[in-house]
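hey so i finaly got around to running the thing on Major facilitator superfamily domain-containing protein 4A from Callithrix jacchus. pasting the sequence first so u can double check i didnt mess up the copy paste, my clipboard has been acting weird all day
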Amino acid sequence: MGCDGRVSGLLRRNLQPTLTYWSVFFSFGLCIAFLGPTLLDLRCQTHSSLPQISWVFFSQQLCLLLGSALGGVFKRTLAQSLWALFTSSLAISLVFAVIPFCRDVKVLASVMALAGLAMGCIDTVANMQLVRMYQKDSAVFLQVLHFFVGFGALLSPLIADPFLSEANCLPANSTANTTSRSHLFHVSRVLGQHHIEAKPWSNQTFRGLPPKDGAGTRVSYAFWIMALINLPVPMAVLTLLSRERLLTCCPQSRPLLLSADELALETQPPEKEDASSLPPKFQSHPGHEDLFSCCQRKNLRGAPYSFFAIHITAALVLFMTDGLTGAYSAFVYSYAVEKPLSVGHKVAGYLPSLFWGFITLGRLLSIPISSRMKPATMVFINVVGVVVTFLVLLIFSYNVVFLFVGTASLGLFLSSTFPSMLAYTEDSLQYKGCATTVLVTGAGVGEMVLQMLVGSIFQAQGSYSFLVCGVIFGCLAFTFYILLLFFHRMHPGLPSVPTQDRSIGMENADCYQR
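ok and heres what it spat out for the 3d tokens, dont ask me to read them lol
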């Protein structure tokens, strides 16, 4: 009870900044999930082929990864962090407002690249600021932070769904099957079968073919609504800047963290056990550095091979699981409207929302579960659950009910994989490695690469390959996790970790999420 009272006291003391950091992650979630259900309308709007529109996903994920690294530049002082959050959240609103005017796929990819940079910066800075404020008590606050990611990702497909066009923007003579505007991948394959010898895809983009009435403007309303919904977020950051007197040259009256640079923070002596009840100060954590600084740390020299093997295998697990999260969210809509399921596009539009909704629910449930279950056990259950779910979806690939149930199941199993893996990895390394940096990087690269890979295989091999890819990547994640357990048992530092420190570390690291 004493710990709960201390945490609630910290929350009351830092209520406004905490709410602000939670709100910017709502912007992150709002921007991460809208591409999947609006992909067909955006393809018609830009008169682009499937391979061309796929680069929009790649540009967003690549710049998200770059933005995460860029965010480390703004973490040294509170003023830099808040101005970075203000600029990033405002940029997301601007992106939503500009998307309806992007009539060329290259322009759209550039705009989504800007959104990716903003999202990556938010991801790094908001996480870091909450850790700096609450330190070892940050677990619950960061779980709530990433709950807002799921909430935003749940909301954006629901906003877009009523505005998805039912009109077919493809030329009437381009395919033998134009009865359903939603069968994007089927249309691409039919076009390839009947016309690839005469005209390659690059010559079949729909230049000069305007979308049918309302096809472009209806989905535009969804983007403008999301821009308006997101607009209070940069205003909240601006309010916090004003409260901290950072809008002028006046010195801030109540700093949320020391303004010393990272080098000075690293040389500070460890804080006492009750340091989190004092005014928030940041004590440098090696796992929170940027990748370049982390790799330069002198204490990595002479480390056993198991130290590096744990970093690599853990990152590969998240490469697969986070990559599956991004790929499934992006392509489950297109898979549903394709044969053999042929789900109506209005019904299929609920699948991304269902997926992110159960990710959000899973993150809420993981808060009490993580205090009673070891991180290694949670990761094992999650990875096995992902593999089993994809196998069931593959066996019952003709059943729409199983698709919806499987989508919800995947959301639950994938929701807590990242924080549980991070908790287990940090615990294995006694909080002396670069687990946070390496794992976040691995997860980001996985989201970028697997989306492109799954999209390419989907187009070339058909809808059935979507579930086959899920089974393969899930099995790879399980294999890498077994290797991680093996290297953990061989790591020489394992016996020296005090039980109390291990339990505290599990609670802290369990809160990180992509």
